[in-house]
Amino acid sequence: MVGTKPKDMVPSAAVKFFGAGTAACIADLVTFPLDTAKVRLQIQGEAVKAEGASTVKYRGVFGTITTMVRTEGPRSLYNGLVAGLQRQMSFASVRIGLYDSMKQFYTRGTESAGIVTRLMAGCTTGAMAVAFAQPTDVVKVRFQAQVRLADGGRRYNGTLDAYRTIARDEGLRGLWKGCMPNITRNAIVNCAELVTYDMIKELILKYDLMTDNLPCHFTAAFGAGFCTTVVASPVDVVKTRFMNSGAGQYSSAINCAFTMLTNEGHSAFYKGFMPSFLRLGSWNIVMFVTYEQIKRGMTRAQQYWESPF
């Protein structure tokens, strides 16, 4: 990321890797109920279609949260949190923590990086992250989507049970279900999120609108969150529907998208847009502000450790 002063010690790749994963976990803890509400709203159309019901169970972000708390209890808002934290520690560490290293790789170590280079770096780390973290993402979505049954039972009894059940019933390929739409989504998200944050922050510092501190990080993160939501929502909805689907429900991600378009129209691709924006906007703010502070704190600690006097 931009904004390091020449006199400052540049954060190492290890600091960025660990800092990104930790910051993403903190952001997930804060915003997870919004993410769960988003998933419920995104799959609502197919649930109504399958059950032949005409009533809509969830209405709006806070209506969804209220309904879930009333019918399933407050803990339902954090269904899949363990898998979510596993996902962020492996996923964000790669896609965010290695972004600067990949940018330097494409520019052959030079400091100047154009928009194309940044987009290439974002796409690369986004795709790499999916290869590591896809099973955790599948389990997270399944947990967030599951509703308590009439007899009090659940689809999965725990995180490890979910991994075992999916692998047993759907094979190892089931754990990588939706990998291609997820690679597409994360290439888009990474480009929109990291490149937008990078460029907004660079412009703010270039024209001396703010100093390289919390207000600057907040502004850049908010802008990145909005741009990411607008660009990534259609792919995100398809990804969520496809990963949550049962065996044989959709033949592919493209078939899932076509079925959505046929049955529910264009607006289906922006289902859950408001919780997506609330979640991505707040997630970006918490993550980037925390990430910048962790990088700064760990770099100073490393600098002090190497030169205590």
From TrEMBL:
GO terms for cellular component: mitochondrial inner membrane. It catalyses: (S)-malate(out) + phosphate(in) + H(+)(in) = (S)-malate(in) + phosphate(out) + H(+)(out); L-aspartate(out) = L-aspartate(in); H(+)(in) = H(+)(out); L-aspartate(out) + phosphate(in) + H(+)(in) = L-aspartate(in) + phosphate(out) + H(+)(out). Its main location: mitochondrion. InterPro entries: MCP, MCP_dom_sf, MCP_transmembrane, Mito_Metabolite_Transporter. It comes from the Eukaryota. GO terms for biological process: transmembrane transport. SUPFAM superfamilies: Mitochondrial carrier (SSF103506). The keyword Repressor does not apply. Keywords: Membrane, Mitochondrion, Mitochondrion inner membrane, Repeat, Transmembrane, Transmembrane helix, Transport. Pfam families: Mito_carr (PF00153). Solcar repeats lie at residues 11-105, 113-203, 212-297. It is a multi-pass membrane protein. Gene3D superfamilies: Mitochondrial carrier domain (1.50.40.10). It is found in: Mitochondrion inner membrane. Belongs to the mitochondrial carrier (TC 2.A.29) family. PANTHER family: MITOCHONDRIAL DICARBOXYLATE CARRIER-RELATED. Antiporter that exports dicarboxylate intermediates of the Krebs cycle in exchange for phosphate plus a proton across the inner membrane of mitochondria, a process driven by mitochondrial motive force with an overall impact on glycolysis, glutaminolysis and glutathione-dependent redox balance. Continuous export of oxaloacetate and related four-carbon dicarboxylates from mitochondrial matrix into the cytosol negatively regulates the oxidation of acetyl-CoA substrates via the Krebs cycle, lowering the ATP/ADP ratio and reactive oxygen species (ROS) production. Homotetramer. Adopts an asymmetrical dimer of dimers functional form. This is Dicarboxylate carrier UCP2. The lineage of its organism: Eukaryota, Metazoa, Chordata, Craniata, Vertebrata.
